[in-house]
Amino acid sequence: MKIPFNRVHTTGEELSFIGEVIRSGEMAGDGIFHRNCQAFFDERFGFRNTWLTNSCTGALEMAALLLDIRPGDEVIAPSFSYVSTVNPFVLRGAKIVFADSSAFDPNIDADTLEALFTQKTRAVVVVHYGGTVCAIEKITALARKKGVPVVEDAAHALDATRNGAFAGTMGAFAAFSFHSTKNITCGEGGLLVINDPQYVERADILFEKGTNRKKFLEGAVDNYEWVDVGSSFSLSELQAAFLYAQLRQLNVIQAKRKTLWRLYYDLLLPLGERGISCSPVDPRGESNAHIFFLVCSSIDERRALSRFLAEQGIASASHYGALHQSRFFASLHDGRPLTEAVRYAERLLRLPMHYSLEPKEAEAIAAQVCRFYQR
Ligand SMILES: *Cc1c(COP(=O)(O)O)cnc(C)c1O
Fold first, then answer.
1. pLDDT 10s digits, 212-237
2. What value does the mean pLDDT take over residues 300-324?
3. Ligand 1 neighbourhood includes 179 CB (under 6 angstroms)
4. Average of per-residue pLDDT values in the chain
5. By CB atoms within 10 Å of each CB, which of 104, 182, 222, 337 scores lowest?
6. Is the Cα torsion angle 49, 54, 55, 57 positive or negative in sign?
7. Is the CB–ligand 1 distance for residue 82 below 6 Å?
């Protein structure tokens, strides 16, 4: 048996769409496939204002610029996440106030958040870990009370829902990733969604490197010029073509992943008797089956399980180091213990989860995990 942790799935239409782009000669951003993708996001998820970016990190950098984050500002974010959740705010000089995860799942703990707000808090960033939407209704209610916008780092969460609402529709901003490790990919790519209309006009300018080119293309001004700060955030049309081919197969891709996820869940849930928990099912929402994980009872056990699986040809992966303990941030952290974040950082193990995985393989992986615990 040789099962990789991830395999990029292609749907079959990518090459012909890329061929169309090459023949058209319009290879920069903002072409037909850009607009096809945007129309898809609008119809399928109700994302009205979107920018296809070169990464989720880039989309979050746009959000940090639009929020006008400055040195001394504070941004609340989960410690159990990828660096890109916070780096865009660190780049603008913000101080990150890290929040703990909940005991239920690795998402930010909405119930301990209020104490982290100060007069300097300028944003709350949340992550929908593994494609399970966090307790966002509590967080947006709290943030509204404090007058602070919420940013959804929805890198994992395309097509995930909570209380009937799609991830990406609840924060002032949301950012998605199409990195090759995500459910839908174009190699490297991202999407910024803006739900608070006050930021839309300036987003067009930042996206156009600080110029009013968008207005010019719409015929609203005679020539375009430098009017604000900005950068190069756009996805190329070649990647948008690849992305559109993937989006057209979204239902098929998601159905397969959900089948695999459910298989793992049903086969591994009994390990609960041994104190091993699976990715939990939150009845308030539907996960997009981005990640399936186990939480082992210790770091040593996780390492041993990962080694055991590797010996059987099965790749597995841990996820993430707690950011407040990282080499970059440890000396900047205010010292609060974030015990749940550390627990997930030490004990969480992800099993292979990708479109090309066959149900038989998922069953074999689950059987090996059970064998490990029966020894
Ligand atoms: C993958 C990921 C990102 C970064 O996505 P890119 O598109 O590679 O920039 C950000 N946040 C989280 C939680 C991620 O998993």
1. 999 999 999 999 999 999 999 999 99
2. 96
3. yes
4. 97
5. 222
6. negative
7. yes
